[in-house]
Design a protein that fits this description.
globular, alpha/beta, 4 helices
Length: 146
């Protein structure tokens, strides 16, 4: 599984923007030539960034043998909404980011049913309670492959 750190200019936000991507390793998946790879968007919680999932979870290990692209965007503390101050976080993530990533990964799916998002608020969780949430989430990933 490749871990890619991508920085690009976001026209929606009018600034440089960062996103981490886990990309499946062809040697570890059943269909390495798949032209419609599902995408999972993992959204960080308050005071997090695009590195939070890589540092605070086992997501890389959990999806290691799946044919799944995992996208972890940064939104600072923008709450994934367009603000009255001109920071269009929703537009940047829901509309612009998939278009930008499609230029890098032409085989990522753009079908709604193959694009999922998941968010956890790290600061609000009891110690280790996120582990059970991530385990439940991993169960969802297993069903995705069926």
């Amino acid at each position: 599984m490749a871990v890619m750190k991508i920085e690009y200019y976001s026209e929606a936000l009018e600034m440089e923007w960062g996103v981490n991507v886990l990309y499946p390793d062809a040697a570890r998946v059943d269909k390495p030539d798949d032209k419609d790879i599902p995408v999972l968007y993992l959204l960080h919680g308050m005071n997090g960034n695009h590195n939070s999932w890589l540092k605070r979870s086992n997501i890389e290990r959990l999806v290691r043998s799946t044919n799944l692209i995992v996208v972890m965007p940064n939104t600072s503390n923008g709450w994934y909404t367009d603000t009255q101050y001109g920071f269009n976080y929703y537009e940047a993530i829901a509309e612009e980011l998939p278009r930008v990533l499609k230029r890098f990964f032409s085989n990522m799916s753009d079908k709604r049913e193959k694009n999922l998002s998941q968010a956890f608020l790290w600061a609000d969780m009891e110690p280790l309670s996120w582990l059970s949430s991530l385990t439940a989430f991993h169960t969802q990933l297993v069903f995705l492959e069926l």
